[in-house]
Amino acid sequence: MGGRSRARWAAAALGITGLLCAALGAVMIVVLPSFIRQQVAKNVRISPSSLSFNMWKEIPVPFYMSVYFFDVVNPDEVLQGGRPEVRERGPYVYRQFRQKRNISFHDNDTVSFREHCTFQFQPERSRGSESDYIVLPNILLMAASAMMEHQPASLKLIMTLAFSTLGQRAFMNRTVGQVMWGYEDPLVHLISKYLPQMFPIKGKFGLFLEMNNSDSGLFTVFTGVKNLSRIHLVDKWNGLGKVNFWHSDQCNMINGTSGQMWPPFMTPESSLQFYSPEACRSMRLVYREQGVFQGIPTYRFSAPSTLFANGSVYPPNEGFCPCLESGIQNISSCRFGAPLFLSHPHFYNADPVLVERVLGLHPNAEEHALFLDIHPVTGIPMNCSVKLQLSLYIKAIKGIGQTGKIEPVVLPLLWFGQSGTMEGKPLSTFYTQLVLLPNILHYVQYVLLALGSALLLILVVCQVRSQAWNAPRDVQGPSGGATGAGPADREVPAQTECAGCYEIQGHRQKRCFYPK
Description:
Elements: H1 2-44, H2 53-57, E1 63-72, H3 75-79, E2 86-105, E3 110-121, E4 133-137, H4 139-147, H5 153-165, E5 171-175, H6 176-181, H7 186-194, E6 214-222, E7 234-237, H8 249-252, E8 271-276, E9 281-293, E10 296-302, E11 328-330, E12 340-343, H9 352-356, H10 365-368, E13 371-375, E14 380-394, E15 409-421, H11 424-470, E16 500-503, E17 510-513
Antiparallel strand pairs: 1-2, 1-15, 2-3, 3-6, 4-5, 6-7, 8-9, 9-10, 10-13, 11-12, 12-14, 13-14, 14-15, 16-17
Helix pairs in contact: 1-11
C-alpha cells in the first residue's frame, strides 16, 4: 500500500506542477505585453518619479559637433569672374555639453525649460587646430553689399569708401577659432554702432558665437503624464505657438519635439518631426529601415529628398521661398536678411547645377546623409548623425567695388555634423532593462507553457499505461479456474466463496479464483 500511495502523491504533484506551469505561461502570454507597455509608459514620461527623468534632464550620451570648412583656393580668380574652387578642411571636433535648466511644470501637462549648451574643442579627435587659417568670403561685407543692391548709387559709393577705409575685402583669411566663436573687426564695430538694425551684433562676429555658453530658447513641451501620445511634443517655443519667419502658415508651424526624444511605441508608419531653432523651422524625417545597434533593435529615420526642395519641386515648401535651385533653403528671413542658405553637405540631394558651379564638391549618401536610429519601444535615440551645410550667396554688386566681377554662386562656407551614440553604462543599463529582461520574460512564458503541457502529457500517459497494466485478465488459477472480474469473466454469485488465492506474476497484488 505504501508504494501505491507514493505513486499517487507523485502523480498528483506532477499534475499540479504541470497545471501551474501551463497556467502561468498562458497568463504571461496574455498579460506580459500590456505590463511591459505600462512600465515603459510610466518610465518615459517627463516626471521626477520616472526612471528616464535624469536622462532627459542631462543627456548622458556624449554629443560631438564636427565642423568642416570650405577653404577657397582661388579667391583672386573668383573676383575676376572665375569659378570658385574649394578644399574641405577638418574635421574640427567639439564636445557638446547639454543641460536643461529653469525646469517648470505646469497644470496643463506641460513643462518648460531652457537647454544650456557649451562646446569644448577636442584636439585628439580633430584634424587641425583652431589656429588654422581659412580663406572664406567676408560674410559681413558680402551680406551688407547684397542688402545695398537696390539702394541709390550715392549710398553704394559711401559703402565702398567705408569698406576701403576699413581695409575690407571680399574674401578674408581668419582662423577657425575666429570664424567659429567670433572676432573683433572695424567693420563689426561700424555696423554695431551705425547700423544696429541691419545686424544686431555687439563686439564680435562669429558663426557659432551665440550657440556657445547659451541656450536655444524657452521650450514648453508635453510631459505625457496625462496623454502619452503627446509626450515630448512642443507646445510653444519662446512663448509662441508658431513662428513668423516664413510666408505660409504651414511653414511657420512648430511641429514635433525639441529633437532629443520622441513618443514611444513607434511603427514603420511613424515619422520623426522636430523643431530646430537654428534652422528656424520644423523638419520631418521618414522611416527607412529596421536595424540593430549594440544588440538593441532600432528604426532608422532619414531626411526625404524634399526636405530642402524648392516650391516648384515640392509645393508645400513654397512658403520658404524666395528660392533658388532646389535642394537649398533660403534662411535670410531669420538671419537678419543675410543671403544664407541651408542644405545637406556638398549639396547632397540638391540640383546638380549647384555642384557644377563650385569645384571641389563630392556629395555622397554615406558621408553626407542625415539619419537617426531610434529605439521604437521608448522613442529614445541610440545613434544620430545630423549634418547640415551653411552657404552664402555671393555676386558682384554694381557700385560696390569690393565685389569685383564675382559671378552669382551659392558658395559653401562650412558643414557640420552633430552626432551622439549611447555607450558605456547608460547603454548597458538600457540594454538590460529594456531589451534583455523583456526578451528573457518573452522566452520564459513559452518555456513555462511548454513545460506545463509536457508534464501534463506525461501524467496522462502514465495513467493510461497504469490502467492498462492493472486491467483484469483471464489467468488460470491452480485448479484451472478462470480469474479476473472483467466483462469477459463469468458472473459469480455473491455467496460463492473464494476457493483460493494466488499472486499474479510480477505483481504483489493477490487474486481469488473460483471453482467452475
